Amino acid sequence: MGSYGKLAKRALDTEMPVMVKMQELLRGAKNAMSLAQGVVYWQPPKQALDKVKELVWEPSISRYGADEGMSSLREALLKKLREENKLYKSSVVVTSGANQAFVDLVLTLCDAGDKVVMFAPYYFNAYMSFQMTGVTDILVGPGDPETLHPDADWLEKTLSETKPTPKLVTVVNPGNPSGTYIPEPLLKRISDICKQAGSWLVVDNTYEYFMFDGLKHTCIEGDHIVNIFSFSKAYGMMGWRVGYIAYPSDVEGFTEQLLKVQDNIPICASIISQHLALYSLEMGPEWVREHVKSLVKNREIVLEALSPLGDSSVKGGEGAIYLWAKLPDKFINDFEVVRWLANKHGVAVIPGSACGCPGNLRISFGGLTESDCRAAAERLKGGLEELVKDGMVP
Ligand SMILES: Cc1ncc(COP(=O)(O)O)c(C=O)c1O
Fold first, then answer.
1. What is the DSSP string of 282-310?
2. 3-state secondary structure of 193
3. Tens digits of per-residue pLDDT, 278-332?
4. Are 209 and 245 in contact (CB under 8 A)?
5. What sign results for the dihedral spanned by CA atoms 269, 275, 277, 278?
6. CA R_g for the chain
7. CA 243, CA 376: separation in Å to the nearest integer?
């Protein structure tokens, strides 16, 4: 025992999480500023945090709760789903964040060996969740070269011609890593194609409130559709770990199978975190929208910093907290560029290769206040100017 060969192939054959690689890189690059991690700079609402402080001695906080989540929180979420997302026939299970929700769904809906579909550039953690559960036949569809929207024609052809038919299709709206928003007609078309083929559609709505330029996020509902949501970014609750799944109430057995998985991973989401989620929800979506508004300036600052790459190289960013930028052709090894930017210019971004698209960068504009974002963007611009002009000069 004790050899590398004894470790599980399911783990060995799964990509390394890019954030772990980035954390290592940042430890080596002293004082680097991060435009890498997908986080927001704000904390949860103060009123909600104050109320939660009062609760710590309550015995129920330290006990297990219902697997599906606290009933008061679930009721509030069902109301929110009806009023804001127009989801009327969905049931809710509260999870320890949207990532855990996704693993729950892969284990509930897919078997090892099933084919599944994602679109490039894809959300790396979703890709890894498939890999580590034995769902290794991952078909990655193209995005439109201009808009980065998922290519629905490709999906239609792939779902009708691939045998066995892919079990599940997943999209993120608006997207991580691109910040691309999927317009409602396209989302509906994707849904119709999945329904016709008999495939599940899982939509990750982690950034539902993060919409810019007057665009409006929409959800869709159906017996083949599952929606995922998160408190992490909207309410600055990354470390509290709360998300939820809205799944079709009419599908027989869904709840029972989902709760088997839920009971074996977190049992229940942290109880104190669920209370914070409920108090935060009471602040209403306006609280979130006000905070999201403050990111418009950050996006503008980062856009300007990317200008050395040329306007046509920068895409996405209509939603979420990301911009997506293509490096000049000769820099296909984007991790080298990322390392160089961190070590020489003191700024960290994510390599596109982690999302299935080498030669690109994902830049996050959510994690820094405007003045810090400006400082980080200045470093990024300096680095990109040098990269384009002279290459990666040591
Ligand atoms: C698309 C997407 N889904 C899920 C998550 C993870 O969210 P949570 O903190 O709720 O697990 C992230 C975080 O970056 C994300 O970007």
1. TT-HHHHHHHHHTHHHHHHHHHHHTGGG-
2. helix
3. 999 999 999 999 999 999 999 999 999 999 999 999 999 999 999 999 999 999 9
4. no
5. positive
6. 21
7. 30
Find tokens 């998300």 and name the residue: 243
Q: Give distance in angstroms: CA of 98 to centre of ligand 1.
A: 5
Q: In angstroms, rounded to a whole number, what is the distance separating the alpha carbons of residues 298 and 45?
A: 21
- Tell how strand 200-204 and strand 225-230 pair up: parallel
CA-to-CA distance for 387 and 289, rounded, in angstroms? 36
Whether 121 is in the pocket of ligand 1, judged by its Cβ within 6 Å, is no
Q: Please give the pLDDT value at position 331.
A: 96
Mean pLDDT, residues 152-178: 98
State the Cα–Cα distance between residues 370 and 226, nearest whole angstrom.
35
Nearest atom in ligand 1 to 39's CA: 14
Whether 104 lines ligand 1, by a CB cut-off of 6 Å, is no
In this prediction, residue 1 carries a pLDDT of 65
* Rounded alpha-carbon distances, angstroms, from residue 280 to 231, 274, 286, 358: 9, 10, 11, 39
Per DSSP (E only), the strands in the chain are: 33-34, 90-95, 115-119, 137-141, 168-172, 200-204, 225-230, 243-248, 314-315, 322-326, 347-348, 350-351, 360-364
Pocket flag, ligand 1, residue 232 (CB < 6 Å): yes
Q: What is the pLDDT of residues 5-27, one digit of tens each?
A: 899 999 999 988 888 888 888 88
Distances, alpha carbon 233 to alpha carbons 38, 129, 152, 268, 345, in Å: 8, 20, 28, 21, 28
Task: Give 65-101 pLDDT, tens digit per residue.
Answer: 999 999 999 999 999 999 999 999 999 999 999 999 9
Instruction: Verify whether ligand 1 is closer than 6 Å to residue 240 (CB atom).
Output: no
Q: Which ligand 1 atom is at minimum distance from the Cα of 231?
A: 10
- Is 90 exceeded by the pLDDT of residue 56? yes
Expressed in angstroms and rounded, the spacing between residue 107 Cα and the centre of ligand 1 is 18
**Residue 152 Cβ < 6 Å to ligand 1:** no
Structure tokens at 132: 């580590």
Percentage of the chain surpassing pLDDT 90?
Answer: 94
Mean pLDDT confidence for 222-235: 98
